[in-house]
Amino acid sequence: MISRVASIWRHPIKAHGRERLERVRLSPGTTMPGDRIWAVAHEASKAASGAWSPCVNFTRGAKAPQLMAVTAETLEDGQITVRHPDLPDLTFDPDTDGAAFVDWTRPLIPADRAAPAHLIRAGTDGMTDSDFPTISIVGLGSHAAVERQVGHALSTERWRANLIFDELSEWAEFDWIGRTLRIGEVELKVRERITRCLATAANPATGIRDADTLGALEAGWGHRDFGVYAVVTRGGEIAEGDEVRL
Known about the structure:
The chain is mainly beta.
């Protein structure tokens, strides 16, 4: 064993809310179920429903830090409840009430940024930041290293990961590139490091930029990478607390 699964996350609407799961069933060649199924296209976007598009087409935390404080809850009937400390809760059906959700987000977008226009649905792979279906993984050892460099505690939710692993030494995950992780019956092949953006500077509790995470990565290690992307090569169920083997 090299680690354990500390927590499992998905983000139903890209950059607009995180949701913690106790367990999930993964399938080969796909993203986390329900992860980044939707995205908010801005007024200058060239994205279309049903296809993957780069993140520059969407409103996101790198340009609108207040979005980092949104949390989400997917209900049994497919509706989503979103919450933000400065807004009333909203429960909506993304298939029919996308306009209501976009209106809800408008106070969170700076006036000098492209305004949110409409909600679009991703293709079968989800609207991840990679152009292939991935599961994002971060380690608590590396997170602790960044905390030391910054000089104060940070929430792991800044990294918007799908899987957070415990019991790792710092940067151990960078040595997994090209190798396979096994969690129970599930296997994930680690593909590449994740290069980070300004979204990670915002506090997920407040939406205020309060930590120079990118500067800390550059000053401490000469890069802006944190975590790794993996692809599911063998499916099955995983849960919090499960052992991770290399």
